[in-house]
Amino acid sequence: MRRVSDNELGLFLRSRREAVTPAQVGLPAGARRRTPGLRRAELATLAGVSVEYLTRLEQGRDRRPSPPVLSALADALCLAPSERIHLYRLTKTTGSGFHCLGGAQPNREVRPAVRAILDHLEPAPAVVLNRLSEILACTDGYRRVWAPTGLLDGDGWANLARFTFTDPRARTCYPDWEHRADEVVAALKQGPFRADPDIAALADELTIAAGADFTRRVETVPGLAAATGTTRLHHPEAGELRLAYEVLELSADDDQRLIVHLPADPASQAALDQLEGRQPGSLRAVHG
User: Fold this and answer.
1) Which of 4, 13, 79, 136 is within CB 3.0–4.6 Å of 219 for a Cys-Cys bond?
2) What is the pLDDT at residue 28?
3) What distance in Å separates the CA atoms of residue 139 and residue 219, rounded to the nearest whole number?
4) Are 94 and 8 in contact (CB under 8 A)?
5) CB under 8 Å, gap of 24 or more: what pairs does 15-21 form?
6) Which fold has domain 112-276?
7) CATH code linked to domain 4-93
8) Quick one: 140 exposed, middle or buried, by C-beta within 10 A (0-12, 13-18, 19+)?
9) pLDDT for residue 131 is more than 60
């Protein structure tokens, strides 16, 4: 039997089907629904495929749907452009034994131009991560926000995934820890995941250290991390912070991502100003 985590296409289709409400696609909600989103029969009808075929896709018994079927499923599921791209990539990489990174080691060198960008982003909390979620470089603003949480403690490369799942302080500083943990796993699964020996070693470590908190997410969270959102942080000195973030992917050769945070409301703006020791308004709040 295949493990659920080996069937990323089926996992993605099922999770998106459960996220679409009947009202979004013009169907009556009805009573006594056992699924939080669309039933398989409803999605099959909307996409113009049989329930049996959709079942095979979700169970991983068919992993090569045609482009017209992919397009119909994407339309029926109301997928965003980034989700459509992810769906297409899942059908092209399944079982191929190929991934873009080859045997390249995780890149821990940050290019001078990227470091210069970080300098210009001050005092915003900004950080560069590699595919292992290692913190390679950050602004002073990032250090002032996250150092008191314990994330940057210790020697070597601080690791966001390891902190989230193995450090008890993470559950205190992230009030929405469950959601935060989902996002961390989604980011780890964006690439080849266990086909990459370095990520496989980290996943094995987290499996042992965190148990079901980690393995359950590997089995149920699709490898599509949010590119934007809001993180709630309980800061030991500044109190409650709401930080809007944007994830900027660097070049494929870099194999790194830049995450920039900004205050999401006036209260967080004032708290960051005080933490930074700057005049009010140095970082403007981003209103959703």
Assistant:
1) 4
2) 80
3) 34
4) yes
5) 15/220, 15/221, 15/222, 16/77, 16/79, 16/83, 16/222, 17/43, 17/58, 17/77, 20/77, 20/78
6) Beta-Lactamase (3.30.450)
7) 1.10.260.40
8) middle
9) yes
